[in-house]
Amino acid sequence: MLLALDEYRAARVVCAYASFGSEFDTSAFCSDVIAAGKRLLLPSINSAARMLELREVKNLRDDLATGVWGIREPTEHCPAVAPSAVEFLLVPGVAFSATGERLGYGGGFYDRLVSALDDSVPRIAAAFSIQIVDDLPVGPRDQRVHRVVTEATRIRKIG
User: Fold this and answer.
1) pTM of the predicted protein model
2) What domains lie within the chain, and their CATH numbers?
């Protein structure tokens, strides 16, 4: 369903993430981004600055290495790209609501990244149906997603 989204098809620069653990597996999505001739940006964690740095990945096998917390991320030889280049953002999370609220892993990394993007950039979450909940605690710095796509459905565009 992600690949069928108009927002994805229109984007030339796609920021995704390398999934880990029980997250939605993004490997096929990331492969499609590259195969479609789009630019693929993946985050690497800058622990000292407590932020995500975006780097362009051209080869999923050669350009990724295990980084902080065991998450695969781009190596140093991948060029850094400013968040202003992002035209489509795939956002991870632990849980999501039908109104676009997102519960992350507690570090605020993606909230800071999203707040640096233009409001028009589509923020899409890929999740499993079990991750959709009625309500989530929301703080002043929490950033919502525009749409949640699950294996069973596509939640309408939010906002």
Assistant:
1) 0.92
2) 2-149 (3.40.50.10420)
